[in-house]
Every structure is written in structure tokens, then in C-alpha cells.
Amino acid sequence: MLLWTLLSKRIKAWNAYRSTYNALADLDIRSRADIGVTWNEIDAVARRAALRALGA
Cα–Cα distance between 39 and 25 in angstroms, integer? Predict the structure, then answer.
């Protein structure tokens, strides 16, 4: 059961990372500038979203 819980949390975190990354990458430069995210920051923002999904 513990393994299933760990695996489930990792999948949830990966999905949060992937959906956040894709959503930000799909925005144009002006839209990203409006929310204060540059192209170089997309990975860091997506990683923070994944950590929040893990509950950290």
C-alpha cells in the first residue's frame, strides 16, 4: 500500500509539472510578461507546482 501511495503522489506531481509547463510554454511572450514569467523561468515555476502537488 505504501508503494502505491508513493507512486500515486509522484504521478500527481508529474501531471502538475507537465500541465503547468505546457500551459506556460503555450503562452506568447506578451502573456507571459503580463504574469511575470520569462521563458527561462517556466521550468522553475512548473517544478514549484509539482512540489505543491506533493504537499511540500
Answer: 8
pLDDT of residue 34: 97
| pLDDT tens per residue, range 30-50 | 999 999 999 999 999 999 999
- Helix %, strand %, coil % of the chain (to 5): 85, 0, 15
Output the pLDDT for position 55: 86
The answer to whether 25 touches 42, Cβ cutoff 8 Å, is yes
Nearest alpha-carbon partner for 23 in 55, 4, 46 = 46
Taking each helix axis from N to C end, the angle separating 42-54 and 2-26, rounded to the nearest 10 degrees, works out to 150
26-to-18, 32, 46, 51 alpha-carbon distances in Å: 12, 9, 13, 22
